[in-house]
Design goal:
Helix 1 crosses helix 3, helix 3 crosses helix 4 and helix 4 runs antiparallel to helix 5. This protein is an all-alpha fold and 180 residues long. It is built from 6 helices and no strands. The model has no long low-confidence stretch (mean pLDDT 80).
């Protein structure tokens, strides 16, 4: 059945996007993107784009940054496919973080593609948007820590129930022994 195949595919993609390896990959790419943006800002402020070699290096940074933002764009599209548009709306955990991130990624992606030449000087707006990734990075780390803590609490709750059961059994044994 075609509908069930699509549903399974959406579920698999959702699991792949939300697993720990995917989160770590996004964190690493975010860090790389932040470093590239900082290098571009530094080079622009220090006017290091005046020679052919320096211009080539900055162009490479720009292409790498575009590749990374393209991966982020793909991540957003996969989330829309896997979870639906409601993933970015009120009622979903961390919805505001997801929505703002999607808007920033889309805006950054479009500006990166359409701003060329002298217009690229206007990309200081783009840089401000891209620094949103610092907030995203912090939010992603916070979510990971929260999920880890929740899993740890769940394990502890199970262990407490096991220990309570052992304690009850021990009390029963003591009562039987005292009865003899």
């Amino acid at each position: 059945d075609n509908a069930s195949c699509i549903k399974r595919t959406r579920h698999r993609i959702g699991k792949a996007i939300e697993n720990k390896a995917a989160h770590i990959t996004i964190l690493v790419l975010t860090l790389c993107d932040i470093i590239l943006v900082m290098l571009q800002i530094g080079a622009s402020l220090l006017h290091l784009d005046e020679t052919e070699h320096e211009h080539w290096v900055l162009a490479l940074f720009g292409h790498l940054s575009l590749a990374i933002i393209s991966v982020f764009m793909l991540e957003i599209l996969l989330k829309i496919f896997a979870f639906g548009p409601r993933y970015f709306w009120i009622g979903t955990p961390h919805w505001i973080l997801h929505l703002v991130d999607a808007i920033i990624v889309l805006t950054s992606f479009l500006l990166e593609i359409f701003l060329k030449g002298a217009e690229q000087e206007l990309s200081s707006l783009l840089i401000v948007f891209r620094l949103w990734r610092v907030v995203k990075l912090t939010g992603t780390v916070a979510i990971e820590v929260s999920e880890h803590d929740q899993a740890h609490v769940a394990l502890l709750e199970v262990r407490v129930k096991e220990l309570e059961q052992e304690l009850k059994e021990s009390y029963l044994k003591i009562q039987r022994l005292e009865g003899f």
